[in-house]
Design a protein that fits this description.
Distance between the termini: 24 Å
Strand content: under 5%
Number of strands: 0
Helix content: 55-70%
Structural class: mainly alpha
Length: 113
């Protein structure tokens, strides 16, 4: 049953506009923090499926290209407080402070392992 819900969710997500898709993925990420174990399992399964989808990575690349072009005038060195660096170091990162959807999803999976 959970697999069918997951498959249906993935099929629907593919057709959502990117803004709504991002909000729904943030919700799925929050499901991984739920007190109800079945909600956590569904959240982790959905995240695993989303990370395997080509449309997700296409959206992420487009967001990064847009962000890069917006920040082209402002070049800075590596920020040691960035979400990616903190996650790579194994530190907990608050979901509200994560800039990209892929990092949000990875952070949710990281907190479950």
């Amino acid at each position: 049953s959970r697999s069918r819900v997951c498959s249906l969710g993935i099929l629907c997500l593919e057709h959502f506009p990117s803004r709504e898709r991002g909000q729904l993925l943030r919700f799925v990420s929050n499901m991984c923090q739920s007190k109800v174990s079945s909600h956590r399992l569904l959240g982790v399964e959905l995240i695993g499926e989303v990370l395997c989808q080509a449309w997700f990575w296409k959206d992420e690349r487009n967001c990064q290209l847009k962000k890069t072009s917006d920040d082209a005038a402002e070049v800075s060195s590596l920020d040691l407080n960035s979400s990616f660096v903190q996650l790579a170091l194994g530190n907990d990162v608050e979901n509200d402070n994560i800039a990209t959807t892929s990092l949000l999803l990875y952070s949710s999976l990281h907190s479950r392992l």
